[in-house]
Amino acid sequence: MTKRLLPLTRRGFGRVLLAGAGAGLVTAGALPRQAFAETTLERAKAAGFVRVGFANEAPFGYADASGKLTGEAPEVLRVVLARIGIPEVDGVLTEFGSLIPGLKAGRFDIIAAGMYVKPERCEQILFSEPTYSIGEAFAVQKGNPKGLATYKEVAAQPDVKLGVMTGAVQKDYAMKSGVKEDQIMSFPDTPSAIAALRAGRVDVVAATALTIADMIQKSGADSGIEALKSFSKVGEESVVGHGAFGFRKEDVDFRDAVNAELKTFIGSPEHIALVTPLGFGENLLPVLTTEEICGM
């Protein structure tokens, strides 16, 4: 199930009601395309808003304490969409593993969750050009009592439990390194995995280096957990991920319009100033294109 976390303006509340009223036979996203042959981009421009899926993973895309959708992906997307005539962004909270199915089903029109571009995902959806690149890290209990610095060290101890977010790439990295399925516990989001680490239900949590750093900071100095040094390879494979926005396959014009703005925005002083407070910056700019990644 998805729920909307953004504060409801009167106009926004009307949009939700209208979407619900038309949900008897078709999704809210499908009706306009069938009835009026509008593209998603045309419909969003006419309505002045677009719905985006996010997975509540700081600092990539999450709802803050006031319910506002923020994070690297939503903030960059807001700037880009405003430039093409779409001033408002509505967030739809979705488990990470359900983002692609939710996009394809029309529950929202863009994925704004910092999702990595991966060849297997490229077969299902379109990606914009990347907006950042980043490595990986582990969170462990203070002092790292099980000596876990790599996935291979997790695999070598069958009693060790690894926590990952459902649908994220870390499970693939682990299994390629020999970690068994029964060692891996999946959680709907990273905060749930971190909570399991603090409770001793898992011994280590794997996520992006930024996510781990953010979770450790929010957990506090007396949380009993710590972050290990980030890494960029698993074995000989690079695990530097590139995050981008996701679109349905038919929304080529929308993806292209966003890419045209990203081309001049990413790496600009305005972009760096926007994302630096979120932990991103010049050292995390993309190094590969979406075409290069999808062709791997």
Morphology call: globular
Number of distinct helices: 13
Structural class: alpha/beta
Q: Number of DSSP strands?
A: 16
Specify the CATH homologous superfamily of the largest domain. Answer: Periplasmic binding protein-like II
Global mean pLDDT? 88
Order of helices and strands: HHHEEEHEHEHEEEHEHEHEHEEEEEHHH
Note the gap between the termini: 33 Å
**What amount of the residues lies in strands?**
15-25%
Please tell me about this protein's structure.
There is one protein chain. With 296 residues, this protein is an alpha/beta fold. The protein has two domains: 10-133 and 242-294, Periplasmic binding protein-like II (D-Maltodextrin-Binding Protein, domain 2, 3-Layer(aba) Sandwich); 136-238, Periplasmic binding protein-like II (D-Maltodextrin-Binding Protein, domain 2, 3-Layer(aba) Sandwich), CATH 3.40.190. It has 13 helices and 16 strands. It has helices at residues 10-21, 30-36, 40-47, 72-83, 99-104, 119-122, 151-155, 170-176, 190-199, 209-219, 252-265, 269-275, 290-294; strands at 49-54, 62-63, 69-70, 88-93, 110-111, 126-127, 132-134, 136-141, 162-165, 184-187, 204-208, 225-227, 233-234, 237-238, 241-243, 246-247. The protein has a five-stranded mixed beta sheet, with helices on both faces. A three-stranded parallel beta sheet has the order 4-1-5. α4 crosses α11. Mean pLDDT is 88; it is low at 1-35.
